[in-house]
Amino acid sequence: MNFGSLFDNTTGGVPTGLAYGNHTTASTVIPGGAMSHIAAASLFSPPINTKSIYSSSGLSLALEQPERGTSMRNNNGAGGDIFDGSGKNRRSREEEHESRSGSDNVEGISGEDQDADDNKPPKKKRYHRHTPQQIQELESMFKECPHPDEKQRLELSKRLCLETRQVKFWFQNRRTQMKTQLERHENALLRQENDKLRAENMSIREAMRNPTCNICGGPAMLGDVSIEEHHLRVENARLKDELDRVFNLTGKFLGHHHNNHTSSLELGVGTNNNGGNFAFPPDFNGGLPPPQQATVINGVDQRSVLLDLALTAMDELLKLAQSDEPLWVKSLDGERDELNHEEYMRTFSSTKPNGLVTEASRTSGMVIINSLALVEKLMDSDRWTEMFPCIVARSTTTDVISGGMAGTRNGAIQLMNAELQVLSPLVRVRNVNFLRFCKQHAEGVWAVVDVSIDTVRENSGGSTVVIRRLPSGCVVQDMSNGYSKVTWVEHAEYDENQIHHLYRPLLRSGLCFGSQRWVATLQRQCECLAILMSSSVTSHDDTSISPGGRKSMLKLAQRM
DNA sequence: GGGCTAATCCCCG
DNA sequence: CGGGGATTAGCCC
């Protein structure tokens, strides 16, 4: 059998054999003539608008060209002119196929016929395309169910006059095609993403070649790290310079000179003035518990260093407390004095700390407490914490360098650790290590000075100083009316980058840790105590004071 | 030569 | 046995 006979056999009506016509006569592939009516109508009428119907289907793309071989053949089957146009060539090709397929059935659907004629070259496929109508049906079926079961395939094969295996192949290939399409789509998306990232990468590289400052928009000369490093180097040089001067002073004071030092001592003193007006007595310990064993670091007695530190700090505090303009300038609200930093640097031969922000303020106030009691409170870490609950979260005396002289706090030097706080969740607690030195300057005149010491004890040299108290503290002078005049100086420096930006203005104006706050708190606490002391201490019906607060104040009052 | 499609081969569950 | 991956064959551009 050949296609010629198949086509000629119009009574059979259907060239269904198309691919397998060699062995499958019309009668076998399309049983009976029942198919002929439907098939003749649906399969062989030329597609009106094939493209619109199949444009979405990859498998049916080839069908967009109805003049191609398959369609031509189908058209021919419908009675069209097979010699029309290029049809002649195709016809001859088909004839080749036909002649081949006539005897070659290796890949034929009916395997049992495979060796019917074995004197022909095997494995030669015939070229064949399903008709647009068949494709359309298959596509619509595929949309509903990409995996038809056997029953569905059988039904479809009958309806389309295709072998069930053909239907099976078609669905298999269609799924493969669908998968390939999806992969292509994904690849396209990935390529797009890749191009985008590549462009982004290029722009970042370009930006890195010509860095601009995010803040000023100008060219950035240095990266953040190197700026920080630069600041650290400058600060380090400054500290080394200060250390040299302090060691020289220590040498003068103690009668020996330290030539070499590599101590990691960081001094919070902003001045290098010699203490001058204060001399330690030979028995500086004053009969009080002897100081702890001298700590020697790199050949330097740390105790002597601390003594000198205390002296210079006290000297600075007194000068700050006693000077007026131009060192101090009244603040706008008139409630405190603000330090004239330039004058300060001239007076104390200080250098401006690089990368740090300094805050210095001075406030005076009358406080209903006598100097001895106040000194006692300041030198006792527990009482000090209770006195300034909103500023000091916690404090401990870590070391006593000197207990004072003759049973008093005069000359007492101690190392303390404290957590300074601002009652705001925005500002974290600042941990400071500092030296506190108490000295009586005259009858009824005392001064207590604090100055930060960082890494002295640990000798680690690696701690980060967030906040450092430069010589700060108070000078208290007894008044005749039971009050005393307290002059509080608060001088600190911060790494502004480590302070919450909302609090920078407050810090700069001293509203967080400044002298005003210390004095106000001191006054408030002492007034409460005075009230408690003058009224009935046992009165428990004052609901304006919390039980805890009352307890705390009673404790303080009883100690006074 | 590469894309598309029908069909085949082969492996695996 | 069917599904799916790999491959082949044939055709077209």
**Residue windows where pLDDT falls under 50 for at least 5 positions:** 1-123, 253-294, 455-463, 536-545
Principal-axis shape equals: elongated
The total beta strand count reads: 12
Radius of gyration: 50 Å
Instruction: Output mean pLDDT.
Output: 64
Q: Helical residue percent?
A: 40-55%
- Helix run count: 17
Order of helices and strands: HHHHHHHHHHEEEHEEHEHHEEEEEEHHH
Describe the largest sheet: 10 strands, antiparallel
Explain what the structure shows:
It is a single chain. This protein has helices spanning 3-8, 26-29, 34-42, 50-54, 69-77, 87-103, 132-144, 150-160, 164-209, 224-254, 302-322, 341-347, 371-379, 381-387, 504-508, 515-534, 547-559, and strands at residues 266-267, 296-297, 300-301, 328-330, 337-339, 356-367, 392-402, 413-420, 430-442, 445-454, 467-478, 484-495. It is an alpha+beta fold. The longest helix is centred in the N-terminal third of the chain and has 46 residues, at 164-209. The relative contact order is 0.07.
Task: Summarize the SSE layout with pairings.
Layout: H1 3-8, H2 26-29, H3 34-42, H4 50-54, H5 69-77, H6 87-103, H7 132-144, H8 150-160, H9 164-209, H10 224-254, E1 266-267, E2 296-297, E3 300-301, H11 302-322, E4 328-330, E5 337-339, H12 341-347, E6 356-367, H13 371-379, H14 381-387, E7 392-402, E8 413-420, E9 430-442, E10 445-454, E11 467-478, E12 484-495, H15 504-508, H16 515-534, H17 547-559
Antiparallel strand pairs: 1-10, 2-3, 4-5, 5-6, 6-12, 7-8, 8-9, 9-10, 10-11, 11-12
Helix pairs in contact: 8-9, 10-11, 13-14, 16-17
The chain binds a DNA duplex (13 and 13 nucleotides) through helix 9.
